[in-house]
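User: Predict the structure for this protein chain, please.
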Amino acid sequence: MPLRSDEELMEAVKKGDFKAFSILFNRYSQKISNLSFRFSGQKDFAEEIVQETFIRIWEKADLFKKGYRFSSWIYRIALNLCINQQKETNIFQSLNINDDIEIELPAGEKDISEQLIIKEEYEMLQAALMKLPDKQRMALLLAREEGYSYIEIGKLLGLSISSVESLIYRARKKLIEMLSGKIEGL
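Assistant: Here is the predicted structure, written as structure tokens:
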């Protein structure tokens, strides 16, 4: 089977093609999981968002509009689920940022103390990210981790480009304030 675009696969999913759905799942499940984990800091939360996102994709396939980018549509669904789920469960009240964190440490001849410092700095950054307001955290993650442009982020979050710029600026400023003196180079 030749590689098909996401949009072509969604047209097949609309007709009940489970194989096309499986291909989309394989393409996007890890991306949605990563985004959800960065948003919440919890592996279980991320897994639940992935499942719910793909359930909605299957059940609401007929709502996908031809000419619209599938990646934008699926991220919008996942973002809405993250925000709604966070509100429903108050997940951040019991957040334990050390759960299930796996960090790839740089290769080379770094000693164990330097590796521990890198892990500690990563954990401090993750904890600081969790303290940001939802929209600031989401805009920053979409820009930095997912590589979305400000225009794309604006479309996903329903904001103007200047609002996205402002959110990201404020998020970076707050992170620097929270981490200043705690992480080398800030």
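Residues 90-103 have pLDDT under 50 and may be disordered.
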